[in-house]
Specification:
Elements lengths: L5 H12 L4 E2 L3 H9 L3 E7 L3 H14 L8 E6 L4 H10 L9 E6 L2 E6 L1 H4 L4 H15 L5
Parallel strand pairs: 1-3, 2-3
Antiparallel strand pairs: 2-4, 4-5
């Protein structure tokens, strides 16, 4: 059962989906996305202030970079429980964190940005972390 009314979270989802981020709503979609070769960014979205103030805007800034992951996806914590649980399974041994962002390379976590690295920071800080990860693990041109 979702924690919040869908009408409340729809605009928060749209902040990412309007950027072309693929929303994953169940475990099978998460497994399929992670199984693809190459790099996949998985954003664990949430309703908290640091998601809205830093994580989502930071992702938006980072997606302007010249080097990008092959796929950019999102799950919504507190809304799509199965998808979020499955994504977190793939993030092991990193503990659950909302928001958080994982860059997977060939299905394995290459970089993980936990809430502690997002909370209290600005969008530019999150973007810098992501851009560094993209430059280290993604092919130029995405």
């Amino acid at each position: 059962m979702p924690m919040y009314e869908e009408a409340h979270v729809a605009p928060l989802r749209a902040e990412l989906t309007t950027l072309g981020v693929q929303e994953l709503r169940n475990g099978a979609e998460v497994d399929a996305a992670v199984a693809k070769p190459g790099t996949t960014l998985v954003i664990v979205n949430s309703v908290c202030g640091c998601a809205g103030g830093a994580a989502r805007p930071g992702v938006a800034l980072a997606l302007r970079h010249g080097t990008l992951p092959d796929a950019v996806t999102t799950v919504f914590a507190g809304q799509d429980a199965e998808a979020t649980a499955r994504a977190r399974h793939h993030f092991a041994p990193h503990p659950p964190s909302s928001p958080s962002i994982a860059l997977l390379k060939d299905g394995k976590v290459a970089e993980f940005i936990a809430r502690q690295q997002i909370e209290g920071r600005g969008p530019q800080d999150v973007a810098r972390l992501l851009i560094g990860a993209f430059d280290r693990h993604c092919k130029k041109g995405g």
